[in-house]
Write the structure tokens for this entry.
Amino acid sequence: MYDFEYHKPSSVADAVKILAADPDARAISGGMTLLPALKLRLNKPTAVVDLSGIADLRGVKRDGNKIVIGALTKHYEVATSAEVKAAIPALAAMAASIGDTQVRNRGTMGGSVANNDPSADYPAALLALGATIQTDRRTISADDFFQGMFATALEAGELVTAIHIPVPEKAGYAKMRNPASRYSMAGVFVAKGPAGVRVAVNGAGNNGSYRHAGMEAALSANWSADAVAGIKVDPSDMNGDIHGSAEYRAHLVTVMAKRAVTNAG
Amino acid sequence: MPQVSLTVNGTKHTVEVEARTLLVELLREKLRLTGTHVGCDTSQCGACVVHMGGDSIKSCTILAVQCEGASVTTIEGLAAADGTLHPMQEAFREYHALQCGFCTPGMVMSAIDLVNKHPDGLSEKEIREGLEGNLCRCTGYHNIVKAIAAASDVMQGRTAELTPAAAE
């Protein structure tokens, strides 16, 4: 790993100031993605800005018909939060399935969301749940926020501070894990909520997590696993690699959608 | 050079480190606590697992400076001052839960966190899933799972003493 300056600001304003002054500085929260990248020398920041000293970015609370999750809330905390388990059990279960125990003890929701890894779990959940991402300067709908593989609406130096999630009537998630890496090969999150029926896919698409309009229409008309069973996903929208062809992933998306609806009940 | 102050196995240390120094490098190279191993160095194998604030973490994937003010426990911090092993260590010995031993410190640290997070006990499935972040390339996990189940009974008071491994 190349060396860098280390900063540990105690407020969002201070963190944003440091990041604005130095375009080659990088923010770190749990570091579960950034540190492995730095160790491989894929990234050479001049400075690392540790957000963990900002106390008010951590925690889960219920705010009327929404769940609000601070960006620094760890996956383990989401998985075990009484508020999340009561309001959106599918999200708690998803958090409990990310990586391994040690990753869940360090990795944060804000970090995962800001990174938008195509195999990450949360982006599909936030798309399907119609979440809103709050940053240091604005709020952005999940639909506008996630812009394809590793791409988001975040400007340089802009920090995710919280995620607002409307409580759905029903939600479910299912994924097929790569047997070696355990990352999602195809995952589907389905939700029926204030914004209607929404279906989002991770792991499989050739440009990151995305919503599937055909499945949304089918489930709006008939909320059942049978409603999506006959939907053929276009392999030309899929990622193909040594772990699975585009045709295989297209097949998996339909299977995971059926399971997700079953899990949602 | 940045300084970091942290408590390791109950002892306070203040150490000068580079910003890029990993916790595992601080433990092994500065504090000479070489029980924590580096296996893959890519956050996958779990040989480097230690506890920070009671939670198991991979010490190869955290900067030493991120541990400012933290309380860290390594495999060296488990046994009592008189050398009496922690029940998990004793169970790994009794159940022959290791062959080469390279993964063992990380396995033991992960196992203790797993037991502590399940106060009502663990099913075999929960133990196997709980070891997701630890790789062993020689025992095949079977005796590790048995050892953790037996240790959890002692740690949580369901049995007063470790149940001896069955003769095979």
